[in-house]
Sequence to fold (520 residues):
Amino acid sequence: MKKRVLLINPPYPLEESPSPPFGLMSLAAYLIQNGADVLIEDYIVNPYSRGRIKRIIGDFKPDMIGATAVTMNVKGALAILGECREESPGSLIVMGGPHVSFDAQEILAENLFLDAIVRGEGEMTTVELLGNLENREAFSRIRGLSYRDGAEIAHNEKRDFIQDINVLPYPARHLVQLSKYKALGFPLNMITSRGCPYECIFCVGSKMVGRRVRYYDIQRVADEFEMLSKQGFRQINIVDDLFTSNKRRCIQICEEIMRRGIRHDWTAFARVDTVNRELLEVMKAAGCTMLCFGIESGVQEILDRIKKKITLEKIEKAIRLCSEVGVVPMASYIMGLPGETPETVRQTMEFARAQCRSYGFHILAPFPGTEVREKAADYGMRILTSDWDKYDANRSVCESIHLPHQDVDRIVGEFNEGINRMILCELEKHEHGETLTPVNQEMVNNIISIDFNNRLIREELVERYALANNDGGGVENFVNYVTENSGLRKDVVSGEVERLFRLGCLTSRNEGAVEEIAWS
Fold:
């Protein structure tokens, strides 16, 4: 009999523009390939409730229940798993993801309902674990596993990274309601490789997926990209740690996309020292609209201290080349890094303004497993809290001995408040019927759509409409129902509902005298 696995994606703020749960979809696909039945509960686009999880567990009867998490939502994931334990005492309760991979001892010690943690790459370890559910003695031989062994906690030997990642199937995207992500205007994501050769002190990327970059075959990458291009999403994000690490391969992927005649916008992450004009021109021709660069600081001494291994000159050159070629450069900076002072903050903000229009600031969050956390004192840093809910990189959870954390919060807060004031101003102009620039009008339209669809999803208005005793009326009846229950203007609701049907996010079918509306 097939083993049944329930995978949980815990809540995550929509303000952070989350993508479909790529790691869970990848794990689910490998579990299915190895004979398991898998269900994904995605609580980013479905409101979580005790009643819902009770019903799901009662219907599905999982042998294993697992959840992933990053640091900022690990407490929420654990709370859900605790309720899962009460609802399904016979299931094996497991966690994976970057936070628990580097905090396994504390997580297991503090959460007695949790049976095991899968560290690092999860596919092989989870399949082996699932195959030994009735043989707890075999747990000691499963590499990459931390588990509860009676009153003790055991940490097995690290599992080697998967050498040929082409053995992995495409992510099981059919297990997630992609239509809700599309409705929110969020992008669809894919990867073409695993691994990061760099060791920045604020990141666990190379520890999670290895320093040696392992590549998917170019034809497979193009096949998946072509498949995703037909899903109706406005954008595909290539979320490799470093898509441009191999220029020749990157060019070959772009050339294959063009050879097939695929026309679709996409973005990627890059380092400033891995791009040149030839590469950028080919990427632009293949549909790349934006490259996201982790710049981190506008001060060379800080870049050296955090082991970024780039220079200000390379930053300036890469951003200039992007602008000249027509690929939008998006620059990300981190405030509160080791050695940060009021002067370095000023220099970084001036540097950021001088480079490009699209840039933003986060605040350093020393996640478990990062060098800056493990050697905080050596870097002149003080950890202020281990309340993981606060590790959203939007407020200080640590500080440099040279700069009070209150100053960092104030500076970044003022920057973000300036952006928010600009957005509110444009929204007010829109409300008063004033003409906006095309860029600002698009921004306003996106905000209105996200707010509408957030309500539609959070308040489960589509599902509630389906359960109501409606007497027909089709789409117009649905528009009236949403208008009455959302507090939004009917013209806004009508326009957004029309958009959702046009995108294929919503479907309708006749059930007797009633036209049923549902998420596709």
